[in-house]
Amino acid sequence: MNPSVRIDPHVLADLALRFEDAVPGLDAAQRALRDAAADPDVAAGRSLSPATWAAATAAIGAALDDVAHVRSVVASTPGLLRACAAGYTSGDKLGAELFAAIAAGAGGSAPLRLSELPATPPPEPHTGPAVVRADNAPVGIPPFRIDRFGSPAIELAARVAGVKVPDSSPEPSRSSAAPRPQPRATAVPTSAATARTSSRSPAAAASGPPRAAMSGDARRADIIRRAKRWADLGLGYSMSGTFEGYRTDCSGLVSMAWGLPAPGLTTDTMDQVAHRIGKEDLLPGDVLVNTAPGAAGHTLIFAGWTDATHTRYFAYEESGGKGAHFGTVPYPYWPGHGTFHPYRLDALGD
Amino acid sequence: MSAGTVSSSSAAADPARISARAHALSVAAARLDSDAVALAVGVRAAAAQWTGPAAAAFGAYLVSTDMSRQAASAALRLAATRLEAHAEAVAGGSA
């Protein structure tokens, strides 16, 4: 283990909150599955179609297993993150041990059992900013089998997430090679505070943190978080209606997510604050725009490629048919809707 | 698996209701995907502030949780597809 490795506990606490936010979605999935399994109408068709009934129940059973597994992983991850944060905060030793174990588990086939790792951080007081609560000590974290998925699958997910997976080659990792380790006194507390605010108070999150103080990546995360909120709310489409001051149309969604003044720019004025970029430069938080004025124009928020072919992408979008929603879109957009080009908010850099 | 314990009670099943259950599963899968994108962006933002190989390893751990989510999402969609087929079979009265 490289003793010089530094991972700010604020960042880990930030991630812990993000994982906690994902748990309700998993709970909803479990409820939907259990409702389907218990529905008398689902069961009543058994005598009519035993083959499809068997296939349906088998699929539901497999889905229940998978959702239960991922819920267990996601729900236990905040404890792990806070354990690492506690370790770093109190002298790095425990955090270093945890990371070493994770590295071994991710690169090999042996199961990683967190229960075999130290469960309590060292008691020494720390002098850094406190973000780790004592009641979040990782007591009772269930074993996590990181070997369940093979290396290719992890690498695929890493490409989606933009995270470099360690391998046997000496190539430097993306995160270590990135020329931007942030000064701890500025960027990290801002990121952590943003996550805490957005996790606990959606309205406060929408009003916006001090964006000028954010790093580019933190700002992109904030853009996606804001767009996701509208999609979660399922706000209907209107070129004249507003929500929290912003028009509830396509450019209103982008303006809100980008933190522009309400009610927002339009598709033909968006280039006042954004510039054209290349397809391969697209990152989450950038947009695709058809700059035609009025109803002829359209824009949506790029949220990542669906796979390495870069032919489809995830997007947040306000559209007349679906309102604010999340989905996948063929690049650059569905046929028959004009010409779309990728744009980036000027404040996000080149 | 709780689904396997459900007993058959009647042949008068409502295909629309079965279809609605399938839709609920699709919605749940879409929500998992949506949450995952927000999480992946957050992970990427956090990873940019880390240094060293252990940080990359931890990134691998985090994305492996996303692989778990993808498996769950795919399973939900498969279950929804199966239920839709079930609804169609019920509607058609096929055996």
Automatic annotation (TrEMBL), chain A:
InterPro entries: NLP_P60_dom, Papain-like_cys_pep_sf. GO terms for biological process: proteolysis. Residues 168-213 have a biased composition (Low complexity). Residues 163-219 are annotated as: Disordered. SUPFAM superfamilies: Cysteine proteinases. The keyword NAD does not apply. Residues 217-345 form the NlpC/P60 domain. GO terms for molecular function: cysteine-type peptidase activity. Keywords: Hydrolase, Protease, Thiol protease. The keyword Repeat does not apply. PROSITE patterns: NLPC_P60 (PS51935). Belongs to the peptidase C40 family. This is NlpC/P60 domain-containing protein. It comes from Yinghuangia soli.
